[in-house]
Amino acid sequence: MLENRGLEIEDSISEESGDELDPVILQPEFLPETRIIHKKCFDCRKFMTNFAWCQPCETTWFKENYSRWTTGSSVADTFGISKDTDGCFIFVMRFYENGDLNQYIENVKDISWNDKIDLLWGISAGLENIHRSDLYHGNLHGGNVMIEDESISTDGRIADIGIHGLVNVTSNKSYGVIPYIAPEILLGETQSKEADIYSFSVIMWSLAAGKKPFAERAHDIALTVDICNGVRPKEIENIPKCFSDLMKRCWAFNPKQRPTAIELNTTFSNWITDICDNQTPTGINEEFSIAEERRSENFQIQKNASQETHKDAFYTSRFFDFSELRENLNIPILHYNDV
């Protein structure tokens, strides 16, 4: 018998085919908490259907958790789960004519502050629903927020949810869009609700700036080093101070200093009330009123300006291996649960 950090593997005879099964040695980062015996899943005791993947367990988990991430008006409408021609699971979602947030910002240049806060309120509500279910998103970015532009309001709905929340494994491998990945994830921490809040802060910036984050530079190892060293998207002129302060709290280096999704949802709800319904002048509605005046003045100047995107800037999710970054960057891996 071969033992490899939690894996117990030996030659055996398949119950289904009678063929001899070759020993399989998996690298420990793939399944640090899972054991395979005779190429069987340790949990359900059925034979594995793919490398390090158990289809029966995956199917069961999808069925049990489907309602947890598809309920509520602040997530993208999902009709069900199916499979593509390769046998991979896919979500069947509603088609949103306005596309995702990145497309919306590019196509609709004149987005008022009322609409920006309304959008963020909807996104924060969706994030709160996810976190209340004791899940996290794990890959929140502008391409995963769908836009529903109704006659009375513009709503942001979170998409691509469901499979990230149960993962609790530290790995060299990360998945996402670099500008939205929290520094602690780049440095080796596990995905978390706090990392979602960091991603949300970059969405706040993108809406306020009217463009994609870090579009002027390559999304490479140099950018990840800068993010880990505290570099954030450029300061935006003429935005409400309360908005800027909240955004900076959300992208704090220490995850424990970031607000919760509940606090974000409550804050945006209060701001909407102040901006739209409160006839009495307050510090909040005055800040947004001034910001809206300046935005309208600058819109005529900026409406014909196009954002140049670096050829190596990518806004679709990719897999990354940041082990080299962690080995060479002079920043210790912090375990914030102990802070």
Polypeptide structure, described:
With 339 residues, this protein is α+β, with helices and mostly antiparallel strands. It is 37% helix and 13% strand. It has 10 helices and 12 strands. It has a two-stranded antiparallel sheet with strand order 1-2. Strands 3-4 form a two-stranded antiparallel ribbon. It has a two-stranded antiparallel sheet with strand order 5-6. Helix 3 runs antiparallel to helix 5, helix 3 packs antiparallel against helix 8 and helix 5 packs antiparallel against helix 7. GO terms for molecular function: ATP binding; protein serine/threonine kinase activity.
Write down the Rg. 23 Å
Number of helices: 10
Please report the distance between the alpha carbons of the first and last residues. Answer: 41 Å
Pick out the low-confidence regions: 1-38, 66-72, 166-170, 332-339
Structural class: alpha+beta
Indicate the proportion of strand residues.
5-15%
List the helices and strands and how they pair.
Layout: E1 2-4, E2 7-9, E3 12-13, E4 20-21, E5 36-37, E6 40-41, H1 55-70, E7 78-83, E8 89-93, H2 101-107, H3 113-132, E9 145-149, E10 154-158, E11 173-176, H4 183-186, H5 193-209, H6 221-228, H7 241-250, H8 261-277, H9 283-302, E12 318-321, H10 323-328
Antiparallel strand pairs: 1-2, 3-4, 5-6, 7-8, 9-10, 11-12
Helix pairs in contact: 3-5, 3-8, 5-7, 8-9
